[in-house]
Structure formats: C-alpha cells, structure tokens
Write a structure and sequence with these properties.
The chain is an alpha/beta fold and about 250 residues long. Helices cover about 40% and strands about 15% of the residues. It is built from nine helices and eight strands. It has a five-stranded mixed sheet with strand order 6-5-4-7-8, with helices on both faces. Strand 7, helix 4 and strand 8 form a beta-alpha-beta unit. Helix 1 packs across helix 2. The longest helix is centred in the N-terminal third of the chain and has 15 residues. The chain starts with 7 loop residues before the first strand and ends with a helix.
C-alpha cells in the first residue's frame, strides 16, 4: 500500500487508516453508494477484518475526563441509559420506560453515585432527553462541562455505541427481556462488565483494574469544581444550526 493511498480518520476509540482508493472504488461499484459514504458506514467492520497494524487505540488520559452518555432502545417501553468513562472504560447502566428529562436526571444521579471518581465532562448526542434546562443546570451545579457531538455522527460517541452493542450481544441475548427482574439482571451484567470481564482494549484487564492503576492521578470533586469556570459555559441548544449561530454571535461580541 503506497503512502499516497493512506490517510487517517480520528475516532473516539481508534485512529483508523483509510483503505486504498482502489478498494473504495470497488466498494462504490458493489454498493451503489458514494465510496467515502460506504467507508464511514462500514468502518467498524473494516476494522474487524483489517490487520492489527492499521489500528491505534485511543482513550482519554485521566479518569472522568470525559464520560460518554447515550440511550439505547431495547424493546417497546424499555430504554437503557448508558454512561461510560472514556479512560477506563468503567460504565453505569439503568433501565427506564421512557426517554425523558426526569429519567435523564435520575440516571445522572445514579452515575454520580456509582462512578468512583469525579467527572469533568459529559458527552452526548443531540437527543432531546439531554437538552432540558433542569438537566443542564444540574450539570452546572456539579461543575461538569456539557459537550455535544455533531448531528448524524455516532462514531464521535464510539465507546458508548460499541459498549451498547456488547450489551445487546452478550447480555440481552441471554435473558428474557419480559422478565420483571430485568433491572436486577442488568445490574449483575454491569458488575460483571466492570469487575470481571477482560477487555482487549485494556490488554486483557478489566475496567476496575485499569481504574485502580490510574486512581492516584484522578481529580477530586473539589479540584474539578476549582477548575470549572461557569462564565465559559451556557445552556446548549438542540438545534445544531442555532447552536452554530450562537457561537458566531458570541465571537463577534
């Protein structure tokens, strides 16, 4: 593969090199899609099939530096809220019947209680359940920065997206989702995932083992609060175009 045929795409989990142009042209012919559109839609499968030498794993250096949060629909009336630390990846899971602002706040409180370290940032997609004023104000009260990914860019929340796929493949596929004890079964899965399940991204270690290794460098809540500058934060707009317009206006003032 020539140097000219290789580029890089930055992802939250990985830095993946593009395949050669000839491969992209073949995919365009076979799929009928624009070549790069096909690549973006299928980069994860290409990563699975490619040689390990093409992959560089990526994560944040500090516990709680960024926590990715998302909601996954499991079935009708069953929504899983997921929060995963970008560094370890230690995660918290809860089930709710709906995606609402109140449930988002309830889940946030669970994250604060379950994650054994201070959180500096929470990153989400642009789902409306994250944009309620009372949720954003709760983040401000804790001194946590609220960061959003671009629309139609789930790869920017890659760790939580991949984690939810693992939940579907390894947990929900083994249980009856109509079981009234499903929340308890999910709690058992969370415990197993964090404490016992080896992760290839951690060289076979568990998230808890990785957390223990980095705990000495973790910030305390007092330090997070001291670093937080509320004057630089504001309530975010769900509408991406409106958000961009507000940013431009702020730069002009």
């Amino acid at each position: 593969m020539s140097k000219r045929s290789i580029g890089t795409l930055v992802r939250p989990m990985l830095v993946i090199k593009k395949p050669p142009r000839l491969w992209l042209q073949c995919m365009k012919t076979a799929s009928g899609l624009n070549a790069m559109t096909y690549w973006r839609k299928n980069f994860e499968q290409w990563f699975i099939d490619c040689d390990e030498s093409f992959v560089i794993r990526y994560s944040r250096p500090t516990l709680g530096d960024r926590v990715q949060m998302d909601v996954c629909k499991i079935a009708l009336g069953i929504y899983q809220y997921t929060a995963i630390d970008d560094c370890t990846p230690y995660k918290v899971l809860r089930l709710f019947r709906r995606r609402t602002a109140n449930n988002t706040i309830a889940f946030f409180d669970a994250v604060i209680e379950d994650m054994p370290f201070a959180i500096q940032r929470i990153q989400t997609d642009r789902g409306r359940e994250f944009f309620a004023t009372k949720f954003q104000e709760r983040l401000l009260e804790w001194g946590i920065k609220f960061r959003l990914i671009k629309p139609a860019s789930p790869h920017l929340n890659g760790k939580v997206e991949r984690s939810q796929r693992t939940d579907l493949d390894e947990s929900y596929s083994t249980v009856d989702i109509k079981d009234p004890l499903l929340p308890d079964l999910l709690a058992e899965w969370q415990h197993y995932y964090n404490l016992d399940r080896p992760h290839s991204s951690l060289d076979g270690k568990t998230p808890t083992e990785r957390l223990t290794e980095l705990s000495d460098d973790a910030l305390l809540w007092e330090e997070v609060s001291a670093k937080f500058n509320p004057s630089k934060e504001r309530l975010q707009e769900q509408n991406y175009r409106a958000e961009l317009a507000l940013r431009k206006l702020k730069r002009c003032l």
